[in-house]
Design goal:
Blueprint (H helix, E strand, L loop, with lengths): L12 H14 L7 H54 L10 H7 L3 H6 L17 H8 L3 H15 L9
Length: about 160
């Protein structure tokens, strides 16, 4: 438990004991008056504050850099699904998630729009729902959707696993 705060100009017993201990360590006689002890305390406090000031400034700068780094990492983490989807190769399958399909090729949005589905990328279940499940849930033939999506890839040379730049 922390001792009660000191009244201004009036050291507590704990502070007095600390100062006396410090004086003993420094080899100074402990019979000093309250005024001298008070001056020593101010001197020590001032010196400690002066010593710590540059470190506080450095810590403040580092804290700002850390916050900026965290923000950059958050932006990169948010972009990661899009990057991973763009790197995917091979044809779309019934097991491809809706979000992965939308992120992989810009023409996927138009294919979904033709089926009356406009907000699939914003849909909460799109990250887990597959193209096959979407076709069943929205009552349209999944094979025709997959054929159309894979034609998009064929036109771009992606269905054969050719990487894009």
């Amino acid at each position: 438990m922390d001792p009660a705060p000191e009244a201004p100009g009036r050291p507590t017993t704990t502070t007095r004991a600390r100062v006396l201990h410090l004086l003993r360590v420094l080899g100074v006689e402990p019979g000093l008056s309250e005024g001298v002890l008070r001056e020593l305390r101010v001197l020590v406090t001032t010196r400690v504050a002066e010593t710590l000031a540059p470190r506080r400034t450095a810590l403040s700068v580092m804290n700002g850099e850390l916050q900026a780094s965290r923000a950059a990492v958050s932006r990169l983490e948010a972009e990661l699904p899009r990057i991973e989807a763009r790197r995917a190769t091979g044809p779309f399958t019934a097991d491809t998630t809706v979000h992965a399909a939308w992120l992989r090729h810009p023409g996927v949005a138009a294919a979904f729009h033709r089926r009356g589905l406009f907000r699939c990328l914003d849909c909460a279940v799109g990250a887990d729902e597959t193209l096959g499940e979407a076709a069943l849930n929205e009552d349209f033939p999944g094979d025709t959707l997959l054929d159309e999506l894979n034609r998009l890839l064929s036109d771009a040379g992606e269905a054969r696993g050719i990487e894009r730049g």
